[in-house]
């Protein structure tokens, strides 16, 4: 695994007021703070990313109806969402290890950490 590190940035990837974007197939590790941040955005897809050693791995605020699936998280805090955020977490069961399946309540501030 080759890590793509954004030096001296607060975010590896930051989507603000963005709609219908695809954030896919990124390796973001050991970032100073957040691996991927989605803020004030809707209808985005976050899939097939590797997020390691970030804090948090994925941050979502003021964002709804985004789809997050098939990502690998290994961070002190994997996912942090604000209470006003409602998104979909879904993946189909495949052979081997799977990240998560189903729909989870968005009012949980630290779902996986």
Tell me what you see in this structure.
- The protein has 113 residues and is an all-beta fold.
- The chain has one domain (1-113).
- Mean pLDDT is 79; it is low at 100-113.
- The protein has no helices and 11 strands.
Helices and strands in order:
Layout: E1 11-16, E2 22-24, E3 27-29, E4 34-39, E5 45-47, E6 50-52, E7 58-61, E8 64-69, E9 72-74, E10 79-81, E11 86-89
Parallel strand pairs: 1-4, 2-5, 3-6, 4-7, 5-8, 6-9, 7-10, 8-11
Question: What labels would you give this structure?
Answer:
single chain; 113 residues; mainly beta; four-stranded parallel sheet; 11 strands
Order of helices and strands: EEEEEEEEEEE
The largest sheet is:
4 strands, parallel
Q: Give the fraction of residues assigned to helices.
A: under 10%
Hey, roughly how much beta strand do the residues contain? 35-45%
Brief characterization of the structure:
By secondary structure, the protein is mostly beta strands.
């Amino acid at each position: 695994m080759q890590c793509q590190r954004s030096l001296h940035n607060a975010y590896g990837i930051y989507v603000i007021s963005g709609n219908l974007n695809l954030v896919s197939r990124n390796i973001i590790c050991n970032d100073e703070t957040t691996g991927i941040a989605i803020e004030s955005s809707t209808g985005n897809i976050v899939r097939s990313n590797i997020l390691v050693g970030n804090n948090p791995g994925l941050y979502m605020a003021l964002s709804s109806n985004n789809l997050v699936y098939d990502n690998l998280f290994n961070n002190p805090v994997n996912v942090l969402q604000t209470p006003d955020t409602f998104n979909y977490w879904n993946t189909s069961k495949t052979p081997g290890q799977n990240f998560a399946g189903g729909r989870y309540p968005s009012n949980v501030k630290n779902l996986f950490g």
